[in-house]
């Protein structure tokens, strides 16, 4: 999820196309939370959804990996493991298990918001970044919104889901930091995480984990395979990269602030998970925080 274009790209006529690509990617990622919640509430398990997501994604992205290789010269083995954990099956599985306990709208707010805070904090600890004051205001807004979801909006039995969402955010933050250091193209990174996830996860899934693919309706399987495997794994990353190239890094990335709001709207429409007023306030606080943090994000250090 890295872009090389500068902020002047938008001035060269890319504003509307950049917004279209960015909004397309944000809607796809927001829909991924909702579709995962829909799947685990119906005929499929979290294990089935992850198998479909990375099985289909691995097939589509195999030519990219064959062309570019494992990128060990940039990543090292530790970096490669962090890339797969944060952009592959471990992250997606933890998120999906969390959504067996808590609503998609809460996942869509907590995971992107907490990930952004963790990236900012780890940037200070690892690279001695010195973000300006508005970044800390952004982190504060995200933390307040997250606490509103974790305490005020929480219903009995949702606590394990919130813990899973925070852990998923930590895994995703590791993925972002590795990409920041290695500067891999998004599609190459996606191919690594998808194919290595499939290679490690699918044998375990087929041999040891609950498998409902033989009994679930074909429509449910096709929906998850198409959306998670094609749209989320491939198109979402491509759309984000195009938005960053056309709008510039800060403006393109700041569109992720819309994920909590769009996820909440889609969850209400498709899952009948109607948000309470404090849910809406929390989502907007987290979105505001992401904008402040993203706009003030320091440049990545040279590798």
TrEMBL record:
It is found in: Cell membrane. Keywords: Cell membrane, Membrane, Transmembrane, Transmembrane helix. The chain crosses the membrane at residues 20-40, 46-66, 78-101, 107-127, 134-153, 159-179, 186-209, 221-240, 247-272, 278-295. It comes from the Bacteria. InterPro entries: Diverse_Substrate_Transporter (IPR051258), EamA_dom (IPR000620), EmrE-like (IPR037185). Residues 17-150, 161-294 form the EamA domain. It is a multi-pass membrane protein. It holds the Pfam family EamA. This is DMT family transporter. The lineage of its organism: Bacteria, Pseudomonadati, Pseudomonadota, Alphaproteobacteria, Acetobacterales.
């Amino acid at each position: 999820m890295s872009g090389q274009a500068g902020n002047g790209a938008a001035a060269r006529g890319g504003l509307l196309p950049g917004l279209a690509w960015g909004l397309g990617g944000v809607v796809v990622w927001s829909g991924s939370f909702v579709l995962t919640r829909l799947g685990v509430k119906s005929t499929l398990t979290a294990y089935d959804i992850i198998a479909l997501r990375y099985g289909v994604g691995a097939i589509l992205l195999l030519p990219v990996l064959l062309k570019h290789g494992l990128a060990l010269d940039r990543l090292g083995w530790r970096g490669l493991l962090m890339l797969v954990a944060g952009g592959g099956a471990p992250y997606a599985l933890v998120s999906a298990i969390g959504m067996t306990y808590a609503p998609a709208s809460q996942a869509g707010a907590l995971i992107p918001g907490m990930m952004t805070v963790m990236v900012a904090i780890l940037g200070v600890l690892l690279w001695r970044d010195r973000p300006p004051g508005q970044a800390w205001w952004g982190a504060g807004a995200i933390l307040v919104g997250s606490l509103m979801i974790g305490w005020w909006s929480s219903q009995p039995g949702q606590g394990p889901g919130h813990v899973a969402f925070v852990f998923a955010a930590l895994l995703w933050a590791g993925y972002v930091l590795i990409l920041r250091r290695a500067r891999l193209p998004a599609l190459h990174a996606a191919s690594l995480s998808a194919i290595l996830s499939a290679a490690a996860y699918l044998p375990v899934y087929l041999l040891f984990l609950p498998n409902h693919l033989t009994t679930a309706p074909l429509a449910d399987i096709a929906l998850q395979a198409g959306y998670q495997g094609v749209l989320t794994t491939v198109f979402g990353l491509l759309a984000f990269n195009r938005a960053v190239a056309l709008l510039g890094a800060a403006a393109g990335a700041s569109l992720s602030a819309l994920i909590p709001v769009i996820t909440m709207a889609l969850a209400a429409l498709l899952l009948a998970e109607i948000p309470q007023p404090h849910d809406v306030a929390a989502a907007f606080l987290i979105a505001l925080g992401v904008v402040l943090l993203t706009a003030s994000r320091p440049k990545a250090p040279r590798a």
